[in-house]
Design brief:
This protein is 17% helix and 25% strand. The protein has 88 residues and is of the alpha+beta class. It has a domain of 49 residues. It starts with 6 loop residues before the first strand and ends in a 35-residue tail after the last helix.
Length: 88
């Protein structure tokens, strides 16, 4: 599969942090820093990627969707289907 974009990523450890240098095929460079190993550190990084490359944010960033509202439940089975059934 051919991609219209090419990237080279260089990762450099810096204590608990990680610096990322992203070189695009056209020569443009972007630098990112993941401050530590916590989920919020990576969430910040992915938010920056989404902003810079116009990609979708991770699902954890999306607000919960509203449900359809109250559901009128109706039982499907109200009597035993077999005389061998004694419970449930």
């Amino acid at each position: 599969m051919d991609s219209p974009h090419s990237f080279h990523v260089e990762a450099i450890a810096d204590g608990e942090a990680t610096d990322l240098l992203v070189r695009e095929g056209d020569g443009a460079e972007r630098r990112y820093r993941i401050r530590g190993g916590e989920q919020t550190d990576y969430a910040d990084f992915f938010a920056e990627l989404a902003r810079d490359y116009d990609t979708r944010l991770p699902a954890s960033f999306e607000a919960p969707q509203a449900g359809p509202g109250p559901i009128a439940w109706e039982p499907l089975i109200t009597t035993n289907l077999s005389p061998a059934t004694h419970a449930g």
